[in-house]
């Protein structure tokens, strides 16, 4: 299984990025997680521009097309999701890559419920398939923990491993039932 992971934070010591890096490190061999690292190169969304003419947007669309699932983790800024992530998602709205894509949404701050709710609403509106059993909050705000510390934390790493496994099991289950419906 190939998973594309996007952190909504551009900050060097971002907790959201650290969480996704820890997920990559903790993922079992059959699950390959790739962090998208071109978020800040994506220009402001303009529906007048053909997405296929923008290199960074094409990279995002191609990465998504090759993925079996999407992991998202966004900071909350002024009760909204990060502008950088919303901007990237806006470029994907009209494309077919996103439709029915299994998505897990992660949160690194228990108090950031507005952004979390908003991200769920955006993904539902874009016809993504949110895998609820995999969506977890890992309380990192103020912890100073980076990816390697998270991996070494038994409680956090157990929670992350369970979430990744739940994503795999529920996604494979969804795909199997889709195949059965089509037969
Ligand atoms: C401009 C700004 C606005 C913020 N607004 C909120 C907010 O409305 N609610 C909240 O819970 N945290 C808020 N925060 C805190 C961030 O969500 C928090 O620092 C988070 O860890 C940033 O994500 P990162 O560590 O991945 O960069 C804000 C931070 C900044 C810099």
Keywords:
183 residues, alpha/beta, five-stranded parallel beta sheet, two-stranded antiparallel ribbon, 45% helix, disordered C terminus, binds flavin mononucleotide
3D architecture notes:
- This protein has helices spanning 15-26, 55-66, 83-92, 113-125, 147-152, 154-182; strands at 2-7, 32-35, 69-73, 76-77, 80-81, 102-106, 129-130.
- A 5-stranded parallel beta sheet has the order 2-1-3-6-7, with helices on both faces. It has a two-stranded antiparallel sheet with strand order 4-5.
- By secondary structure, the chain is of the alpha/beta class.
- The longest helix is centred in the last third of the chain and has 29 residues, at 154-182.
- The chain has 6 helices and 7 strands; from the N terminus they run E-H-E-H-E-E-E-H-E-H-E-H-H.
- The chain is 45% helix and 14% strand.
- The radius of gyration is 16 Å and the shape is globular.
- The structure holds flavin mononucleotide (FMN).
- Flavin mononucleotide binds next to helix 1 and strand 4.
């Amino acid at each position: 299984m190939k998973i594309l992971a996007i952190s909504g934070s551009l900050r060097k010591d971002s907790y959201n990025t650290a969480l996704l890096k820890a997920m990559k490190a903790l993922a079992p061999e059959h699950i390959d997680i790739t962090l998208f690292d071109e978020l800040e190169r994506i220009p402001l969304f303009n529906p007048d521009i053909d997405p296929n003419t923008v290199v960074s947007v094409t990279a995002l669309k191609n990465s998504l097309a090759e993925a079996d699932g999407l992991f998202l983790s966004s900071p909350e800024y002024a009760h909204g999701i990060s502008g950088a992530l919303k901007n990237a998602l806006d470029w994907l709205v009209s494309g077919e890559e996103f439709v029915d894509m299994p998505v897990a949404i992660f949160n690194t701050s228990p108090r950031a419920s507005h952004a979390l709710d908003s991200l769920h609403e955006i993904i539902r509106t874009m016809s993504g398939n949110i895998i609820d059993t995999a969506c977890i909050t890992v309380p990192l705000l103020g912890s100073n923990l980076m990816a390697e510390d998270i991996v070494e934390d038994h409680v956090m790493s157990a929670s992350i491993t369970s979430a990744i496994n739940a994503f795999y099991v529920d996604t494979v289950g969804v795909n199997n039932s889709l195949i059965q419906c089509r037969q």
